[in-house]
Design a protein that fits this description.
homotrimer; eight-stranded mixed beta sheet; alpha/beta
Chain lengths: 434, 434, 434
């Protein structure tokens, strides 16, 4: 795995580049983001779905374009400026150009009294509205008087965009990686998602062989996954054996897990295994804590096996949905940790096999030189692990199940398994022994 | 459910009326009790089974009639008088008329040294005996001397009586409600049982429609349920899907639960759900704590799904089987609480369905006006509950199972389900989706 | 069971006799041990397998013979003498006759600094070596100088021996009892094993009838069980329904349990039941703590149902594999306790049946005189236990399962079951009722 060690080392730089772009459900910010990612993974295909398209219970909304938005005081001082921070504008705001008193303006101003230095993130996708967001400190500083309020936006028929990349493997069975690209300048939720997904895709593309086919999608949250499912549901239900919704994966604090609705899919077992052996104190959420695209992927009778491996989960960290979710909160090491756990999870799915001993009873390890091979300073522990593993290789348990039974990381067992296979003590089975 | 709110408001009055009647396994007290209940629910049918009838391993005993029983001192003072309290006589006592010394009398006197103000309840159904019960304080006050002891009873072939009422529903499948009527003047064990059962029967009779058929029986404990099972077992095994043994359901202290032998019947799940959402500290007994007619209904190869929802359980409260189990221990609010939990349990069985979403992915609630409809002060919580419920409506889980998964009371989910069905977002399934 | 009460009363004497014999994987010590056991159970057959025989992944080693071994100082004082304690020699040591300086000798001397009064037990079966073991105190006392080191051994083609005894029962299905005979002078590990096994065999031989056939084997650990399995595996897989590896069963401290690999075999359930009702604080090890012949019997695709009931487990007590594991550590009462739990475990397997009530509903116990029969000082408890047992006799649960459900020892329930069968209230079923 040495050759992959530098994969993803530019993730924080990518985040920095993408950070200022004003993304929303639709519009040029989404396309700009997808084109940047296309530079990193050229096989990415970008799709457009016309406004008004029906998708299950939903309709693709009109496309929103924003050119400018600001509040000037009567002296012409620019107090709030979309060009300084795109969180200042309520997403999907209608166009206006008005002079208002402070009292008239206030119902359209959003701030957070408990976080007076944070600009909140507010959207109004499905009801007509306009509004600005600002820090509570700035709100308090506004003097009575007249304000010139300008929002230069359009909301009219256009398209919804998403990106898709299929990396073929030996099998048609698929692993689904899904991330979203509809939030403006926030780093953990959401840029960590597409950035880590992009690094994973580069890694997957460099693998000499892939057992499974990978379907990687970048789409706006909720409406995007609904549109995508409405186009591909039957095929996905047949082919997807595991999947991850990739979000909130870039800070340095905890690791956390949110299950699929079913809770007992391959994705769930793999995620729990990786996290347990990465961070003993990882946080385990339940389906009732859900809040991202697993709501669609795991909806009744959709039922794709999609779980979430995260660092600080949406809704659970103080900077969530504010301007404080920034390029300092998300770090290169945070992104790298997120990349590593997802890479390990995928690696387990790729390498999970049923193993069977070739000899009955315990093998003679000494004769086969297996003691010395393993004889490092921790050799006693390693021989014990090898014997424990072997004792479960009856062809009825997957290597992941064995790793759970003997409470050792899967990635250590694969190394031992490879040695034992080379020594003809183990054989791989295509599937579970009857 | 507003129209039912006054059901049962006379339960304590009924208890007061029935309290002085001297019930036993057989005899006029049982018939008098059944006739009083027949006034409240005229459809009740009263059955008579002749003494000597074989029922499984048992034989219906002779009928016991008591006219009088007392102990006078040599001066003719009436010290112990059955007419003052029918617990003074050991049930099924033989007739006698004797002058005895205190020493000769004492082996026939029963008291409770640890509860010196309580008259104990003693029976001798299956071996020939006579005896009196009195408070320990009174026993200690008896002076040496001659006592005139009179018991005017008969024990001769007659009948055993029980009451039965069938309330037909849309389906032939049945819910069994069983209670007993063989204890003299004691209120929690037993009058709360027949009284709450009578209020439940009135409520069931007033329902516009019933999905299930209800079989309500009032019978003497043990021999009564054995006789009843011996007549109807095959039909009951085919038709009964749930049932409750109704006893000890009238005091104001705790709620408690005793499972069926199987422990995993619909009755068990429903009872646990109701109790958990009624009284977080309800007491959970096991099958090994059994002691009433579930011993017959759940006997091996009888196996009816009968559980017990109680307040203070027989054998577990200090006043049990004494004169202290009286009209003060059992209150109108205690009876009402007992009625409510049983009514809720029945209501769940009536309303439990399999629900399936009509759309794939999450529905657009805004479009359908479902946010405003629910928009009370707790609307956030309610929308969350609605979405959690919807997320499990895959047609494979009953509403009761969903209520357990999201830890909300069934009766709140039915209200939400009704709204969603009206809005065509949910449909009811006759049975579990394959 | 009174007639068996003296079985095993000579176990400590047997241990004392066998203690000084120098056993190893092969050789005259093993044969001498088997012949002594053959005196106690004459039906024992002794088998010889030639060196070089292939058995699964192993080859039977050459036979090791030791005649003498000692270290003399230059003055001719005998400092270390195999004839004083056979632990002084590393098992399978090559022959030598050398004069060495203390420095040259030291790499071949083994002691335990933490247990300075103990001679350790060391083997070198599969690599050529010679060495002596001695107390650390003695090691420290050795002065610089010349030492005469003599080991008079042979290692050449011969045989590996084991003993086998088949006690036929009504059924061909078998219970396997396996113990090992390859350790020199140590008492808990290992002599308690063959000694308790021999007492169990005497007890089994005296039984009027046996439901199952018993296969009792005495063999060198690891290579012996591998050789044995390689000869009989297919038959054993068909016939063995339960089995125990009998080792470390003679001290007076704790009881302990090590499961089969499967963990849910009859042997496991029976062992856990006996231990729970014998010693509430028994130690429960896992498969990962294994270390004896269960490694072969439960190997992948061997999968015999073999568990271990022990007292102080190998590797878990301070005297393990040292000269301190002696005739004081192992006591007659320790061996008797070990014998008793294994006898009870076997007794449960012999007597476990499916029971079904002959009457529906509870039986009339009074009529049948079952109350008096049981009316001892604890009669209330006994009647309760009888009724609890009866309440589960539906023909679908084995008596062992019922004993677990009502948390009573199996051996008490069989007595009650016999009474109830005599009274025609229970019947035995050949197998589980559909």
């Amino acid at each position: 795995m040495v050759k992959f060690k530098n994969i993803g080392y530019k993730m924080h730089d990518w985040t920095k580049y993408l950070f200022p772009i004003c993304r929303s459900l639709t519009g040029s910010g989404v396309r700009e983001t997808l084109h940047y990612i296309q530079n990193l993974i050229p096989e990415l295909k970008i799709f457009s779905v016309p406004s008004g398209t029906q998708a299950f219970d939903w309709v693709v909304p009109d496309e929103w374009t924003i050119r400018d938005a600001y509040i000037d005081d009567s002296a012409g001082n620019r107090l709030v400026d979309f060009k300084q921070n795109n969180l200042h504008i309520v997403s999907y705001s209608n166009p206006i150009d008005l002079w208002l008193t402070l009292e008239e303006l206030k119902p359209h101003l959003h701030s957070l009294p408990d976080q007076p230095n944070a600009i909140p993130y507010v959207t109004s996708y499905y009801s007509k509205y306009w509004g600005f967001c600002l820090t509570h400190n700035q709100l308090k500083s506004l003097a009575p008087g007249q304000y010139h309020v300008v929002i230069d936006t359009d909301l009219k028929p256009g398209v919804l965009n998403y990106g898709e990349l299929i990396l073929p493997g030996e099998l048609d069975q698929e692993i689904l990686l899904s991330t979203y690209i509809c939030h403006p300048s926030m780093a953990n939720n959401e840029l960590s998602g597409p950035v880590v997904t992009t690094a994973l895709t580069q890694w997957l593309g460099m693998l000499e062989k892939r057992k499974y086919t990978y379907r990687i999608v970048y789409l706006p949250e909720t409406i995007g996954s609904i549109v995508y499912l409405s186009k591909h549901l039957e095929y996905l239900k047949q082919q997807v054996i595991a999947g991850f919704n990739i979000t909130c994966i870039g800070d340095d604090r905890c690791y956390s897990f949110l299950p699929s609705r079913n809770g007992k899919t391959l994705s769930d077992y793999v995620a729990l295994h990786v996290l347990k052996h990465t961070d003993h104190d990882f946080i385990r959420y339940t389906w009732l804590d859900r809040g991202s695209d697993e709501r669609q992927y795991c909806a009744p009778n959709v039922d794709l096996p999609v779980a979430s491996i995260m660092r600080s989960k949406y809704g659970e960290y103080p900077e969530y949905h504010t301007s404080l979710d920034d390029l300092e909160l998300v770090t290169q090491s945070g992104l790298q940790g997120g990349f590593d756990v997802l890479r390990k999870a995928i690696d387990i799915i790729e390498k999970n096999v049923y193993l069977q001993t070739t000899v009955l009873g315990e093998p003679q390890l000494g004769n086969r030189g297996l003691y010395p091979t393993l004889s490092t300073k921790e050799s006693g522990k390693e021989v014990r692990t090898m014997m424990n593993m072997l004792s479960y290789c009856d062809g009825n348990k997957s290597l992941l199940e064995i790793a759970e039974l003997i409470d050792e990381p899967f990635w250590e067992l694969t190394l031992i398994a490879d040695q034992l296979i080379e020594n003809d003590l183990l054989q791989k089975l295509e599937k579970k022994r009857e």
